[in-house]
Structure formats: structure tokens, C-alpha cells
Amino acid sequence: LTAEGAIITGCNVENASFGLTVCAERTAVQRAVAEGHRQFTAIAVTCDVKESFVGPCGACRQVLMEFGSDWTVYLTKLDGSYKETHLSELLPFAFSPAHLTKN
């Protein structure tokens, strides 16, 4: 969800070389940036795992952090249940763009 209220979707793009797989969270952010959005308020992550809620992988968490730590993250299941958390809770002590400007 962009700061302007636009809903941008992404999808997981599998690759036989697992390191080249791109997660849905990153494709959504890349699509949003390509469409001119750079400020976000929330993201919903859905997975077909029934037993537990699944969060973004570490790489996705870092990419999201590039656009701010105050994202609301909705971890959702296919049955409609969800858990609300925040990116700062999923990636504590994060390295962010702000660290690059400090001396």
C-alpha cells in the first residue's frame, strides 16, 4: 500500500537457480517504484502454509527497509486470518539508508 493509497501487487517468480528467485514482496516494490511510488505504509504477505503465519524473507525485509522502517506488515493466510506486525519488529537493528549519511 503506497502512501498515496495505491495497491500494488507482486508475485513470486521462481527460478531453477534458487538464488535468482524473486519474492513477491520485492516484485511489488519494484513495480511500485517503476510506477513512481517511493513511500509506503503497509504490505500484506500471503503464503499457502496453513500451520503458521509466514513473514518476508531476510532479503525482502532489507529491501522494504530501504523505503522506511514504519511499514505495517500483515501476515495473512488463505483462510482470511492475519497477524499485524511492523517492519521494525521483523528487522530489529536494521541497516538503513540513514546509516550511509552518518559520519
UniProtKB/TrEMBL annotation:
Superkingdom of origin: Eukaryota
Entry-linked PROSITE patterns: CYT_DCMP_DEAMINASES_1, CYT_DCMP_DEAMINASES_2
MF terms in GO: cytidine deaminase activity; identical protein binding; zinc ion binding
Protein EC: 3.5.4.5
Enzymatic reactions: cytidine + H2O + H(+) = uridine + NH4(+)
Segments forming a coiled coil: none
Pfam families with a match to the protein in the record: dCMP_cyt_deam_1
Name assigned to this protein: cytidine deaminase
